[in-house]
Amino acid sequence: MLDDGQLLLQIQNAGGLFSGYELCLENGEPVLLGSGGQSKVYEVRETERPHRSFALKATFFTAEKRPKRLDETYAIWQNLCHQSEHIIRIIARKVICPKVSDQGELIALEDKISERSSEVELLLMEKLIPIIDTDRFHRISVFHDRLKQIDEIITLFEQIGQAVSLIHKTYSLHRDIKLENIFYDTVHNCYKLGDFGAARRLVIDQASTVIYSDGYGAPEIKGMMEEVYSAKADIYSLGVSVYLLLNDLKFPASEGYIYNPRQYEAGFVFPPIQKVPGKLNRILQKMCAYNPGYRYESMEQILSDLSVIKGEIQTEKKEEEQIPEYSDFETQTYKEEKGTTKQDAAQDVSVPLPTRRDFQILFRIVQVFFTILTVVLCIVFGRAQLYQDQMLPIALALTGFGYAAIRRKVKPVLLALIFFALLILNIGVYGFSMIYIILAVSVMAKTYSLCGGVSAGYGLWLLGICVFGR
Questions:
Q1: Cα 87 from chain centroid (whole Å)
Q2: What is the C-alpha to C-alpha distance for residues 42 and 44, in angstroms, rounded to an integer?
Q3: Residue 382: which region, alpha, beta or left (left: phi > 0; alpha: psi -120 to 50)?
Q4: Three-state DSSP class for 218?
Q5: Given Cys at both, which of 170, 257, 336, 400 links 140, Cβ 3.0 to 4.6 Å?
Q6: pTM of the model as a whole
Q7: Are 141 and 133 in contact (CB under 8 A)?
Q8: How far apart are CA 438 and CA 376, in angstroms?
Q9: In angstroms, rounded to a whole number, what is the distance separating the alpha carbons of residues 448 and 29?
Q10: What CA–CA distance (Å, rounded) separates 163 from 168?
């Protein structure tokens, strides 16, 4: 028996497809772009301009399984795609009834469906890129790395949200919003919502037919099969879609692209995503609230809140771009050497004022300088014995301890152990002194500035002794 692709090929040969278009073939087989449920999507092209490719969605029905509202679904989609640039555009549609033999061979194309024939709905659409890919090992990934960035995800959120808002304004539901039904248009650089096969008109703002995808479907559809539901079911599904993009394609309380049944337990709250701003997390949690009464009332409310967050993120991004990155010791002089004139530097309002950290680094340099200078002068002027016996080990240890701890190049604990070892050695050899208590308390309190200050102060004192005498 022939498969659907081969049957379409026979329908094409019988003149049953759209005039001016033909199926794209690979090794004699129609090129399959995707499939789901009773539908398959194939690649087609214009016969006169083969470089222009399109998508052909073919949905196969038998007399028993033909949807009652097939024409209504098409009417909804056709009406919406002309009103929004974020809904996939339908170019043409036709319904044919191929009569097939028991061997699967096409016998004829009939006007009406019969016991020996089936029905095929053909939708000719623009060909776009799905935003998620599935490899042969069934691993899921986004189509482009930029869709891993929060600002790009917000752009998708906003554009698909506008499409859903329009759907609800026309008193309709999409009922199958998920990542597999979102596409990227490379010509117009925008995201579009597709596959309206489950779309329905609302009756008094509610629907009742049970259609959902696990993980995307709202709890009121999955858990309460006989209850009616509203546009808030679409809001839930869109929230899940955005949550997945922000959460590395992981469903809530799951480690991958497989939903966790806990998601449909009463009172379940979507866990916040760590790398996502708190306000955006709260929007998604409200969209995906278990109780529909706690969700947003409309897409307009969501888009309004989203615009605020989008503005804040863009402002933060601009501020980050304006902050220059300098190394710890890079000054205005270094900047001038890199090609900036003094006049330009004076006009550069983005150059930050010296910070507390800059003063700390300068203070450490002064400490080290005076310590080394003191040692040299003590040796030169013959006063090395006093300094060497009592103050030199502690001064060096404390200065190194304070400086290295701030620079984070040596573990403070190690330097503290060295200091206490020298301290015990000095007490054992030369006796106890009050200065030892001050220094020990400074180290234990991790007051690096005080430690370094004491050593620098003693260095200056000894410098005075060496130069001017007692």
A1: 23
A2: 6
A3: left
A4: coil
A5: 257
A6: 0.65
A7: yes
A8: 26
A9: 76
A10: 9
- 4's tokens: 């659907």
What are the DSSP calls for 16-78, one per residue?
Answer: -S-TTEEE-EETTEEPEEEEETTEEEEEEEESS-TT-EEEEEEEEE-TTT--TTHHHHHHHHH
Residue with tokens 């490719």: 53
Q: 3-state DSSP helix/strand/coil percent for the chain, to nearest 5?
A: 45, 15, 35
What are 133's strand-pairing partners?
141
Phi, psi (5° rounding) for residue 443?
-65, -50
Query: Token pair 């190690």 is at which residue?
Result: 414
Taking CA atoms, 167 is separated from 155, 199, 436, in Å, by: 19, 9, 78
Instruction: Give dist(CA 150, CA 162) in Å, integer.
Output: 18
> Closest by alpha carbon to 284, among 295, 268, 274?
295
Tokens (6 digits) for 408? 């984070």
* Cα–Cα nearest to 5, from 54, 38, 36, 41: 41
- 43-46, long-range: CB within 8 Å, 24+ apart, which pairs? 43/127, 44/17, 44/18, 44/124, 45/21, 46/20, 46/21
Structure tokens at 244: 């997945």
Q: Check: CB of residue 61 under 8 Å from CB of residue 120.
A: yes
Q: Which long-range contacts does 316-324 make (Cβ < 8 Å, 24+ apart)?
A: 317/151, 322/350, 323/350, 323/352, 324/350, 324/351, 324/352
User: Judging by DSSP bridges, how do beta strands 25-26 and 119-126 pair with one another?
Assistant: unpaired
Quickly tell me which residue has 């995808």 as its tokens: 213
Q: Among candidates 228, 225, 226, which has minimal Cα distance to 204?
A: 228
Alpha-carbon distance of 325 to 334, in angstroms, equals: 13
Distance CA(112)–CA(349), nearest Å, equals: 76
CB 406 within 8 A of CB 448: yes
| 25, β-bridge pairs | 30
The structure tokens listed for 425 are 């050695």
Q: Supply the DSSP symbol for 94.
A: E
